[in-house]
From TrEMBL:
Organism annotation: Cocos nucifera
Transmembrane parts of this sequence: 45-60, 66-94
Keyword field contains Transmembrane helix: yes
PANTHER family: RETICULON, RETICULON-LIKE PROTEIN B9
Subcellular location: Endoplasmic reticulum membrane
Primary site of residence: endoplasmic reticulum
Segment forming the signal sequence: none
Domain Reticulon residues, every copy: 34-138
Topology term for the membrane: Multi-pass membrane protein
Biological process terms in GO annotation: response to bacterium
Name used for this protein in its record: Reticulon-like protein
GO cellular component: endoplasmic reticulum membrane
Amino acid sequence: MASSSSKPGGQSSTTKAPSGGKKTLYDFLGEGKVADVVLWRKKRLSAGILAGFTALWLLFEVEEYHFVTLLCNMAIAAILVFFIWSNVAVLFGLSPPKIPEVRILSEQAFKEFVETLHRKLSRFASVLHRIAFGDDLKRCRLYTSDTSVKWMI
């Protein structure tokens, strides 16, 4: 079913397409930038991607660095850069950086979110209170059996 043919682009593998014609691996991967990277036709880009992911793997797996710590350090670095930029701009008479005000939620939507969160946490606390005093043993048994099954898995 598979035959081998040599092409100038480094393709040596062909497969039989459902229509009956031969289809190269480059054709199978979509004949675009992704195929060029996967087949190492763009060597610098492929090497850069490999090096980047290797650095991430070393950082997170080998050095046991955490993603949240990385995000926090990047945020601190960005704040430091903007602070220095704005102070240097004042000293040299340049325009300071323009940082837009970000409004993710309106005040009303935020209040609704907090009220809903408070209501659900209060309900959860009351359920835990009932379980602690032995009023709702059925739910306690269900929770402990579910937790123990998940722990065994």
